[in-house]
Design brief:
mainly alpha
Length: 61
C-alpha cells in the first residue's frame, strides 16, 4: 500500500509541475504577442516617410 501512495503523490507532483510549466509557457506567449502588437514596426498611426512623399507627388506651382 505504501508504494501505491508514493506513486499517487509522485503523479500529483508531476501534474502540478506540468501545469506550472504550461502556465509559464502561456504567459510568455501572451507577453510576446502583446509586445508584438505594441511594436512600432506595425504602428498604423506613425509618421509618413518623407521619401515616399517626394516620389509620389510633384511640386505644386
Amino acid at each position: 500500500m505504501f508504494e501505491y501512495e508514493m506513486h499517487q503523490l509522485r503523479a500529483a507532483d508531476l501534474t502540478r509541475e506540468a501545469d506550472h510549466r504550461r502556465l509559464l509557457r502561456e504567459a510568455r506567449a501572451a507577453k510576446a504577442a502583446r509586445a508584438e502588437r505594441r511594436s512600432p514596426r506595425h504602428d498604423t498611426e506613425g509618421r509618413v516617410s518623407t521619401t515616399l512623399r517626394k516620389v509620389r507627388f510633384t511640386r505644386a506651382a
